[in-house]
Q: What sequence folds into this?
């Protein structure tokens, strides 16, 4: 009996594996953090071998809890925009993975804007010209790692986002694919034709042979017997983490919205079959495609680079907090931040500012400021950044969400959820199962293999675990947000080249 779907959730700071049953309930899970590398200010890297090894270990741990023949399919969701380039013969990376947070190509983006090519990129890819996306990272590898361009032009190398790297390893180097949602984050993919764009590839001098074949988000692309020798398990769902979360929240109708609080913070709105054109610093992206014959579904997205990573920084670098879990109690121990604002622009600011030269700032500190105030300011920063994105989304679509569905590690923090509801002025709903990103990947894999027959069959699985209604009066809300906007201005354009 095929009773479970295995979701591989490869994130920025950890790899996870979660088994879901037919009711969408978690039956087993395993998680493992892996190292982060910061070779220069603003640079962020991962060891791709360490990423794969951690993902394999947690998958084996989760699978050890059930008989292997009971796994119907594997769904993959991943940190987006992070780039790996490797040798097709040996499967050895040519360089560390360049992480989505890395700002090393900010100068390249400046030159693109000077050329006027940013308008082409915006029109065809739905993205802004920023170091966040994969295209400039691939170009950097080709230009700066000795011998790589020559090897790439000879067809010896492969490249892709983390999903492609995982599938390559899961299939022993037989399959080099990605899906439309991940491809749409590369700055190289035409979201209207759903194909790699030859003019853009030519501009960046990226050989097309480097790139993976693009599949839909819900179809069988290969099988793996890595965990179950002699018994192949279909690899049937692929989606970038934020698109997978949108699907996991069952935001199937245009206008439905979710926000994920992870390393970064990502708010997406389903816009249906139309790719929106934002005038307020947001992105148009492919949400998913179910099967090769169906049209794509699009989303409007606001990407905040640092959310939960600010708590990790307080824990690991300043040692202000011992764990993320204690921040709710610390924040509640004081009535407010005492005028302190924390702008965690460690790697610049994303939506709606798109300022690669912004840097982190903590303002309003007095002699009476203590760790409670700092913890509270870090939690409040997630809510303020989300408010900025929601305001831009409302301006673009003339729609303000009536409710915000949330997930991610920080969404388990009751203080943050309540403050988010207060600063937005709309209710916040947290699902009973907060592993919504992995759940979305499992849904995509299950739909492709008949484990579930249709999205409508999933409706009964949507369970709200907690609801936070806004309690703050409007004048207080706007005063606090005005202070946040002042703090952001202090952080902007700090590291001008």
A:
């Amino acid at each position: 009996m095929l009773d479970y779907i295995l979701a591989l959730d490869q994130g920025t700071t950890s790899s996870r594996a979660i088994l879901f049953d037919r009711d969408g309930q978690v039956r087993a899970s395993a998680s493992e953090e892996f190292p982060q590398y910061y070779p220069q200010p603003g640079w962020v890297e991962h060891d791709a071998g360490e990423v794969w090894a951690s993902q394999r270990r947690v998958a084996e741990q989760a699978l050890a809890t059930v008989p292997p023949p009971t796994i119907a399919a594997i769904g993959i969701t991943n940190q987006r925009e992070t780039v790996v380039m490797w040798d097709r013969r040996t499967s050895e990376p040519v360089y560390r993975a360049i992480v989505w947070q890395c700002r090393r190509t900010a100068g390249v983006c400046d030159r693109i804007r000077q050329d006027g090519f940013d308008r082409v990129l915006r029109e065809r890819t739905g993205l802004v010209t920023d170091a966040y996306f994969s295209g400039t990272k691939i170009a950097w590898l080709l230009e700066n790692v000795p011998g790589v361009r020559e090897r790439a032009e000879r067809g010896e190398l492969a490249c892709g986002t983390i999903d492609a790297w995982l599938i390559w390893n899961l299939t022993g180097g037989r399959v080099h694919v990605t899906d439309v949602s991940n491809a749409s984050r590369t700055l190289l993919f035409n979201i209207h034709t759903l194909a790699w764009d030859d003019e853009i590839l030519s501009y960046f001098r990226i050989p097309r042979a480097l790139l993976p074949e693009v599949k839909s988000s819900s179809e069988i692309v290969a099988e793996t017997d890595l965990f179950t020798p002699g018994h192949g398990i279909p690899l049937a769902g692929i989606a970038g983490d934020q698109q997978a979360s949108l699907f996991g929240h069952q935001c199937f109708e245009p206008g439905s919205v979710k926000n994920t609080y992870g390393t970064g913070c990502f708010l997406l709105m389903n816009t249906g079959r139309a790719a929106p054109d934002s005038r307020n610093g947001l992105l148009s992206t492919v949400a998913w495609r179910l099967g090769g014959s169906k049209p794509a579904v699009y989303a409007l997205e606001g990407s905040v680079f640092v959310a939960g990573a600010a708590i990790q920084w307080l824990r690991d670098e300043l040692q202000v907090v011992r764990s993320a879990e204690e921040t709710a109690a610390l924040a509640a121990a004081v009535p407010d931040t005492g005028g302190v604002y924390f702008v965690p622009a460690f790697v610049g600011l994303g939506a709606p500012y798109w300022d690669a030269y912004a840097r982190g700032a903590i303002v309003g500190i007095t002699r009476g400021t203590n760790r409670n105030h700092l913890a509270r300011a870090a939690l409040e920063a997630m809510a303020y950044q989300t408010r900025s994105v929601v305001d831009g989304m409302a301006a673009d679509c003339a729609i303000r969400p009536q409710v915000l569905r949330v997930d991610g590690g920080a969404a388990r923090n009751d203080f943050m959820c309540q403050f988010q509801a207060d600063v937005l002025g709309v209710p916040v709903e947290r699902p009973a199962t907060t592993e919504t990103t992995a759940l979305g990947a499992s849904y995509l894999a299950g739909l492709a293999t008949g484990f579930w027959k249709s999205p409508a069959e999933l409706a009964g699985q949507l369970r709200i675990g907690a609801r936070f209604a806004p309690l703050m009066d409007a004048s207080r809300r706007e005063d606090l947000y005005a202070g946040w906007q002042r703090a952001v201005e202090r952080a902007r354009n700090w590291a001008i080249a």
